[in-house]
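Lab notes, practical 5.
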Amino acid sequence: MGRRRKAREFCLQILFQLEFCADSPSKVLEEFWSEKRVLPETKEYTEWLVKGIIDQKEVIDDLIQSVSQNWELERMSLVDRNILRLAVFELLEEAHLQPAIIINEAIEIAKKYSTEKASIFVNGLLDAVRRKLDLEKMEAQPKSKQEK
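Output from the prediction step:
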């Protein structure tokens, strides 16, 4: 398993834990790492994901909700909701990865930690988020670039 996949899985575990405890994210991270031996790059990417998702949670949740036609965010399973948050954060902030890679990673994680149907659900929502972000980027470009 790649370092980034491992970081994403750690991030999912940490986000899940944060759903149930009142401890600060930094305390949860500290306790989480005390039980793990990981490469510095994996730890760094995990922490970047967790902190970024926490910092942008409202924006991320609003984006997910805007493309979710029949599901309220609160009704989604905790695992699926946090997989979506993770992938949406990467779609927003990870400039070095193609959206298809980010979405595929989320699907694989959903298959491992949730259900087969969850992977279909995650795929559909993330594809809708990707399309919405692409449209927003296109609309933000000057008109002369859009015509080319």
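Observations recorded by the TA: The chain has eight helices and no strands. The mean pLDDT is 92.
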